[in-house]
């Protein structure tokens, strides 16, 4: 895992990744701006009280409240954007570190979309469930990273793994290395909450998981994987 982290940082200024990071930055920033503007516009059109002095205050408070909630659900935003940037990040990482790997399998748009949608919904549900726990700060501070670390590790791994193997084999490999994948998820959750750095989190987290997955393959990812089913059951 340490090697995966160092390799990710070593490639952080690769021009190919910098271009993807720029897209990640723009997409992440736009998601907040659009959300805030949309809520402000909606509240402004509703005129909640009909009082000229109060309605603008409600509009501003509503927009700020939504931005605060958006920050809380930032991990969901990061996860959604990561799915959109998977291929360019994977190509840049594999071109530099795993040049002998064969071309990835054609997972299909529906398969990839199903994985992304399933875990985005799970992230929303789990974070909504954890939100009341922040009324007890010590409990919320522990539950939030643990729950998101588990889900983020699982999501990023599945998105990366299905490029190289069918979903059932990816699941067996995930179960085999679930401890390391969970720790990787905690690291991704931490990166996703660091100011400024979190704007580039989808790219960094995807690259990190690609390296972790590469380490699970025979000879450190330098050739195609063995049938996972037979290895997992041995």
Write structural notes for this entry.
The relative contact order is 0.14. The longest helix is centred in the N-terminal third of the chain and has 32 residues, at 15-46. The protein has helices spanning 2-10, 15-46, 55-72, 74-97, 109-130, 137-161, 167-176, 178-191, 201-216, 228-232. The protein has 2 domains: 15-100; 105-216, no CATH class. The two termini are 24 Å apart. Helix content is 75%, strand content 0%. It has 234 residues and is mainly alpha-helical. Keywords: Membrane, Transmembrane, Transmembrane helix. It is a multi-pass membrane protein. The chain crosses the membrane at residues 20-43, 63-86, 115-135, 141-157, 177-194.
Quick rundown:
The chain is mostly helical. The chain has 10 helices and no strands. 32% of the residues are buried.
| Helix/strand/pairing category | mainly alpha
Low-confidence sequence ranges: 222-234
**Overall residue-averaged pLDDT value:** 80
- Count of DSSP E strands? 0
When the domains are counted, the total is 2
Shape: globular
Tell me the distance between the termini. 24 Å
Encode the helix/strand succession as letters: HHHHHHHHHH
Radius of gyration: 20 Å
Tell me the major beta sheet: none
Strand content: under 5%
Helix content range of the residues, please?
Answer: over 70%
Number of helices: 10
Subcellular location: Membrane
InterPro entries: CysZ/EI24 (IPR059112)
Membrane topology: Multi-pass membrane protein
Pfam families: EI24
